[in-house]
Amino acid sequence: MSELRRDPTTLEWVIIADERAMRPHELVRKEADQPSADFHDRCPFCPGHEHMTPPEVLTQSLPGSDRPWDIRVVPNRYPALRPDAPFEEGGDDFFSRFGGTGAHEVVIDTPIHNREMGRMDDREVEGVLQVYRQRYNALKTDPHVKLIIIFKNKGSVAGTSLPHPHSQIVATPVEPPLARRRYNVARTYYAGCGRCLYCDILEKERSAGRRVLMETERFLAFHPFASRWPFETWIMPKQHRSSFGDASPEELEELAPVLGSVLKDLQEKLGDPHYNFVIHSAPTKNSVKPYYQWHLQIVPRLTTAAGFEIGSGMHINTALPEETAAFIRDG
Amino acid sequence: MSELRRDPTTLEWVIIADERAMRPHELVRKEADQPSADFHDRCPFCPGHEHMTPPEVLTQSLPGSDRPWDIRVVPNRYPALRPDAPFEEGGDDFFSRFGGTGAHEVVIDTPIHNREMGRMDDREVEGVLQVYRQRYNALKTDPHVKLIIIFKNKGSVAGTSLPHPHSQIVATPVEPPLARRRYNVARTYYAGCGRCLYCDILEKERSAGRRVLMETERFLAFHPFASRWPFETWIMPKQHRSSFGDASPEELEELAPVLGSVLKDLQEKLGDPHYNFVIHSAPTKNSVKPYYQWHLQIVPRLTTAAGFEIGSGMHINTALPEETAAFIRDG
């Protein structure tokens, strides 16, 4: 089973994913990538191959669809964390361990092997977002779960080998370092001035305007002032809600075309780059707090984090967010 | 000029490298990589092409060599930070900026276009290490410099496009987040028990033994307990010194074959993967403190940080350090 290990130099936890672990010889670099499940006849996420995944947690059909399912959620076959792992600490001060409790699910976004989210219609994107929320709210009932992260890896450069469009949901038994840092900063800000930091950022970016991509009734999409990567994009709801699980159905209906538009622009204006997106929420136990705001972050993988970033935790961004936003908005 | 921008959600600085900045259209993804300086007749780091780089900061010849230079240090042509940038803050609480003061140098490790560090003899590796130390000690005299990071990116997956072996040195005017975090943890540990955390880790890893690759009179090489990446390797000096600038010539002479051996093992046992290495030191102003220990970290880029890591700051390592160390040690 997986375990968490605490790095004594940072006091931060690392997931050592024994179960998805590769034996050392499997990591030896090959001259070219292994052929992956490029064809739907070998793809574990295609309809008819349901036996190739663990039994489903949930299936969803879109209105008017006559398919057996349009969206399907399954436990990850090689989970980084799992609900039945022991919730217990071990080791000593130096070699501190924690059971790999939590969850790791795969959302199969569509039955169609090559229908990237950037090519879906709004109704399909909305279906996926509603399923995310359903699973978020189901997973948060586990008392061991501290944080739920929903994310998508599109393409090999972004860390996936399976081309069939899918997303992932990980529920962790500890607060991961970056999530804790951001949450603490927001809490301190609120203690000082009584306002939500993220709502204030939204207002500042909106009035600055130079980094804004688009605005709708309920959402603002922009390239943040201190972007870590070129073309990093945030989509932020205007209505204050600390957790994605509290987003309303109407909000998700409106989020779908905004997300779809951002992804289509990546495809059309940036040559269809590999990308990650992440939905950030407050820790689950604090989900009604006034000082955090859920938001969606999209990171196209156009440049590579290198030795400087690994060593320092500081990013060098080789593009100006004011220029990249203008390129997308006006280009 | 470059500037630092503070992310209001983390209060951490990001370098927006205007000068090395790519215009947005240059980041559009191409079908294949651009042809890079693959041939030495176009390589800016090959002898005879010295005019293709800014004027040198230092050149070094190895004993008995009759070449014009064996190691050459130049300012980065597109520096992330530079000594003559204004040292001043600007902006407001949300959009806080800082001048891109500091330094960004390139160490051309060898005059030979394809002589990777993993193929060098000990004398050549030692020459590079001694030059690192010279530049470290020169750069730390700048009163604006807070931290000096020495690193190498080998291969495109590790973030470099120039194949001619080279390293980089960045001197920053702020303490980068990961460096500050590790330094604070070590300081707190020292305040609690009066010992250096890193010296204690060295002793713990040494006596556990399972993750150790090799031990010499002055160094221990091991895969740390909470490794973030498969085959992540640390080389730690046994003699307590908080800063790489204080390493003795004898230590660097002994470090050379240890580093060479680790890099050769990557080549021979892991299929010559792309990799980064980083030399960690205490902040420069605290370079004589008893609670930090310089060390060298090597990260082969065998797996890809994906949406989970970007969103949470938490790593999923898909290999057990006990198994990877045994694979290298005994394999």
What does this structure look like?
Two copies of one chain form a homodimer. The first copy, chain A, has 331 residues and is of the alpha+beta class. Chain A has two domains: 175 residues, HIT-like (HIT family, subunit A), CATH 3.30.428; 153 residues, 2-Layer Sandwich (HIT family, subunit A), CATH 3.30.428.10. The first copy, chain A, contains six helices and 15 strands. In chain A, the strands form two sheets. Chain A has a ten-stranded antiparallel sheet with strand order 3-4-7-9-8-13-14-12-11-10, with helices on both faces. Chain A has a four-stranded antiparallel sheet with strand order 2-1-6-5, with no helix packed on it. In chain A, strand 1 and strand 2 form a beta hairpin. The longest helix of chain A has 21 residues. Chain A is globular, with a radius of gyration of 20 Å. Chain A starts with a strand and ends with a helix. At the A-B interface, strand 1, strand 2, strand 8, strand 9 and helix 2 of A face strand 1, strand 2, strand 8, strand 9 and helix 2 of B.
In short:
The structure is a homodimer of 331-residue chains. Chain A has 331 residues and is an alpha+beta fold. In chain A, 25% of the residues lie in helices and 21% in strands.
Q: Tell me the span between the first and last alpha carbons of chain A.
A: 49 Å
The biggest chain-chain interface is: A-B, 98 and 98 residues
Overall CATH class of the largest domain in chain A: Alpha Beta
Supply the number of helical segments of chain A: 6
CATH topology of the largest domain in chain A: HIT family, subunit A
Rounded average pLDDT of chain A: 92
Q: State the order of secondary-structure elements of chain A, H for helix, E for strand.
A: EEEEEEEHEEHHEEEHEEHEH
Our estimate of the beta-strand percent of chain A is 15-25%
Total domain units of chain A: 2
- Biggest sheet of chain A: strands side by side, in what order? 3-4-7-9-8-13-14-12-11-10
Helical coverage of chain A, percent range: 25-40%
How many DSSP E strands of chain A? 15
| Oligomeric state of this protein | homodimer
CATH architecture of the largest domain in chain A: 2-Layer Sandwich
Low-confidence stretches of chain A: 32-37
- Radius of gyration of chain A equals 20 Å
Q: Outline of chain A, from the CA principal axes? A: globular
**CATH superfamily (homologous) name of the largest domain in chain A:** HIT-like
Instruction: Assign the structural class of chain A, choosing from mainly alpha, mainly beta, alpha/beta, alpha+beta, or little secondary structure.
Output: alpha+beta
Tell me about the largest β-sheet of chain A. Answer: 10 strands, antiparallel
